[in-house]
UniProtKB/TrEMBL annotation:
<dbReference type="Pfam" id="PF02626">
    <property type="entry name" value="CT_A_B"/>
</dbReference>
<protein>
    <recommendedName>
        <fullName>Allophanate hydrolase</fullName>
    </recommendedName>
</protein>
<dbReference type="InterPro" id="IPR052708">
    <property type="entry name" value="PxpC"/>
</dbReference>
<feature type="domain" description="Carboxyltransferase">
    <location>
        <begin position="1"/>
        <end position="191"/>
    </location>
</feature>
<feature type="domain" description="Carboxyltransferase">
    <location>
        <begin position="270"/>
        <end position="557"/>
    </location>
</feature>
<dbReference type="InterPro" id="IPR029000">
    <property type="entry name" value="Cyclophilin-like_dom_sf"/>
</dbReference>
<dbReference type="GO" id="GO:0005524">
    <property type="term" value="F:ATP binding"/>
</dbReference>
<dbReference type="InterPro" id="IPR003833">
    <property type="entry name" value="CT_C_D"/>
</dbReference>
<keyword id="KW-0547">Nucleotide-binding</keyword>
<dbReference type="InterPro" id="IPR003778">
    <property type="entry name" value="CT_A_B"/>
</dbReference>
<feature type="region of interest" description="Disordered">
    <location>
        <begin position="212"/>
        <end position="231"/>
    </location>
</feature>
<dbReference type="GO" id="GO:0016787">
    <property type="term" value="F:hydrolase activity"/>
</dbReference>
<dbReference type="Pfam" id="PF02682">
    <property type="entry name" value="CT_C_D"/>
</dbReference>
<keyword id="KW-0067">ATP-binding</keyword>
<keyword id="KW-0378">Hydrolase</keyword>
Amino acid sequence: MRFLPVNLTTILVELPGLQETRALHTSLQSCPVDGIEEMIPAARTLLVHFDPESVSAEALATELRQRDLSLISAGSDCQIEIPVCYDGVDLDNIAQLTGFSVEEVIRRHKESEFTVAFCGFAPGFSYLNGGDPALFVPRHQTPRTRIPAGSVAMAGPFSGIYPQSSPGGWQLIGRTSAKMWDTNRTPSALLQPGYRVKFVQVDDLETAGVNTTPAIEHDDPPASASGSINRPEETPVLRQTAGHARPHFKVLTAPIPALFQDLGRPGQANQGVSASGVLDRSAFRAANRIVGNPAGTGCLELTLGGFSFQSCSQAVIGCTGAPCPITIEDVKGRTTKITETHRPMSLEPGDVVTFGHPRTGMRTYLAVRGGFEISPVLGSVSTDTLAAVGPIPVTAGSVLTLRNTREGLSSVSIHEAPALTLPTADDVVTLDVVLGPRTDWFTQQGLNAFTQQRWKVTAESSRTGIRLSGNVSIERKDDKAELPSEGTVTGAIQVAHNGQPVLFLADHPLTGGYPVIGAVAEHHLDLTGQLPVNTMVQFRAIGPWSEIQPHSDMAHTA
C-alpha cells in the first residue's frame, strides 16, 4: 500500500488491485475515519479527500495501513439485465485482436456476468469487471472525438456503457437503449457499485426493456428542474402568478452563454459526478455578501463580458470577479456608467444593464438580492459543462425569474473589495503546486521543464481544463506505460503523451488515465479560474515530491 500526495487535502492510496481497492473502500464505508469527506475508488487506487483540521495526511495513512484488505466485499443482491444490439463498429477489430469469430466474441460477452467495480469518467458511467479474460482488448491509440450515447464498449479488463455522447477510446461492441443516467430517478445512475450486470442480446431495442432483480423502487420524479441539461428541450421560462409576471430579467445578449453556479455538488462521486461549482469562490461569496444573500445562493457566471439584460422589476444586484465596465440605461434613455464593482446597484423596471469586456481576469459573478428561481439538480444549481448536469446555459432570449423572498436575507454590504489581483493576457502568473501523485513517472528533465519554464494559456481552454503550451515537453520515464484510470481533483495537472499539460478546473472528469505530475494548491485555485488566454504561467513547487509516510508504530502508540 502506497500513500501519494495529491494536494493539501487529498491523498491517493495505491493498492495491488481492484479487490484490495474495493476491500479498503468497503472498510472505510462501514467503519469511517473522522475527517474523511469523500472517496473515489478506481481500478487500483482510492482517492481520499479529508479535512486537514480533523486529521493529518500522515495520521490518515497510519489508519488506512491498518485496515484488513483480505475481506472480499459482498456484492449487491441487485442484478440488472441490459438489452444489447451487438452491432458495434469495432466488432471485427475485437474478433481480430482476440482470434475469435464475431459470433464467439458476442457469445462470450453475453454469457459473462459483470459487477460494477466503480463509477467515473462521466455521470452514470460504470466500470464493469468480471468479463471473460479472453476478451480483454486494448483501447484505441487515438480516441474517437464522439461516441454515441448508449454505446456498449470494452477496454482492458472492463466493459462499460457510455451514458451520453462523448469522446472515448474504448472498443465498441454494441449499443443499448437503457437510460444509464436520469436526474428524475433516484439514484440518477442506473448502475451502482456492487450491482451485477448481465447483457442480453436483442434484435430490436425499441421493444426491449431493462430487467432488474429484485426490482428497484425509485422515488417519484422531483419537480421539473427548470432548464436542466438532462432535459434539453426545456428553457428557463417566466412563471406567471395571479395574472401578472413575477420579477424577472430578460437576457438580451450573451456572446458566451452565462452559467448558473454555486458551491457545487460534492458527495456524488458514487454516481460518477464531480463536484463542479463556481471557479472563483472568493468572488462568488463576495457577490452574495454585497446583496445580502445567504452564502451559497446561486449566481450567474459571465465569461469575458458582453452580457446584457433588461430588468422587468425592481432589483438589487452585485458584481464581482473580472471587473467589467457596466452601463445602466433607464426607460428614458438616461445612461449611468459604473466603473467600480463590489458595490450594490439598484435597478428599476425597464433598466437595461450591459457588461463590457473585463480589463483583467476572465469571469464575472452576477448576484441578485433574493436569488434566481432555478431548481437544483442533485442538490446544486451549478452547471457542469462536461457532465451535462444542471441548468441549461443562459443565452439571449432567456427569461430569468427572481425569487421574491426575504427569507435568509441580511443587509447589503458596501465594504467588499476584490480578494485577488487578476491578471491580464500579458502577465506572468505564479501558481503554487503540490507535486504528486505521479511525479515519479517523469524524468528529472521533465520535472525541470514543468517548474522552470513558463507555460502559455491556450485558446483550447474551458471550465473543464486549461490546455497549456510550452517549448519543452515534460518527459516521461517510459512513454509507452499506461496508467489505469484513477481519481482526479480540481487543480490537477495531467500530462498527455505529447508532454503538454492540462490544468483541470471544476468541470474535470472524475477519473483520468494520464499521469498527474502535480496539483495547484488550494489557495491558488480561484486564480486559475481567472487566467485569460495568452497569460503565462509559472509553476512553483511548494516542496519536494515524496510518498506520505505513516507514523511508525512507536510514534503512533505514543
